[in-house]
Structure formats: structure tokens, C-alpha cells
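Can't paste images in this forum, so I'm doing it all in text. The chain is below; anyone willing to post the predicted C-alpha cells underneath?
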Amino acid sequence: MAEWAPAPERARMLSFSWAGSYLGTALAMPISSTLLMQVSWQSVFYFWGFFGFCWTALWITFSASRPTEHPFISQEEVAYISYHVQSKAVNGSKVAPLRPDVFKIFTSSAVWACIAGHTAFNWVIYMLLTELPSFMKVVLGMELAASGRLSGLPFLTLFVTQTAAGMAADWLVKKGHARVGHLLPSDVWLV
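Text version of the structure:
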């Protein structure tokens, strides 16, 4: 992402790439429950296995490590990305690589706050992912097809809010209210 994300679009690109997993989950829930009800439980595994192979083929065909290596990108796009990527020299000088102080990283309260927040967020996501359909069926008495459709809603909400947060972060940076490095961590935790 470091070589692909121009500064004016960085938060949007990062939040959209993270949000893609939530959109996939939001779509997978109703599709899986429909396959389960209409075909068989095995069909869910065959369908997503086949989908995974197709996705991999598309990824191999359309992805590249750098804009200059991409087979389908125009020279204008390469020039735009190269101009706006912040890994360029600052004031005409080369940027020295950072050597992080690992002790300071792991004794930082901000790092531990991020670790705690991320752990709690993952716990909630995996509880929703694994237990929400069962809860809706057993406790609320919903049919599996209906619970599959509704189980995708929290993940659709995550997709929408995270994508909107990325756009808002880019807008704030463009208006000069913040730097990208300060907004991206809060963008991820906003949802």
C-alpha cells in the first residue's frame, strides 16, 4: 500500500481495503444460509472453495507490487501516484530508514491501548461471526435463511462506516485539520 496510496487518497484506500473483509462477510452470511437451506451443507464449502480459486486467479492477473509493474495502469496514473506518494525525498534529501526502539514501543501506553482495543474488537467480530446465526435461530426462533440474511447486517454496517471514515479522514487531511499518520489509527478504531 505504501507505493500505491497517494497522500490525498491514503485513508480512503486503506479503510476500503480493510472494509472489504466486512463486505465479504456481509454477503457470505445470506449466500451460505441459502445454499445450506436449498442445496446442502457441503455446497457451502464447495461454493466458497471455488470462489476462492476464482478470486486468486483475478488477484494474480490484476495485482502488482508497484504501479510501474501493473500491466493495465496508464502512464498518467503512474505519474499521479508517483508524484503524491510520500516516500519521496523530503526537501530534496533522502529519507533515512527508521530504526524503531522496540523497548519504547512495548512500554508505550498508546501501543497497549491499541492492542487492547484491537483484541476487544476482534473478540466482538468473531462472536458475531460465529454465534449470531445460532442466537437468532435458537433464542429468537428465526428460520436459518432469515437469520443468515440478518446476520450479515452488522458486517454491512462495518463496511459502510469504515469506508465513510476513510473518506472523512481524507477530507480532514485535505482541509489541513490533521495529518494522515494521526487519522489512520483512529479511522480503524472508529468502527
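The radius of gyration is 21 Å. The chain has one domain: 7-89+108-190.
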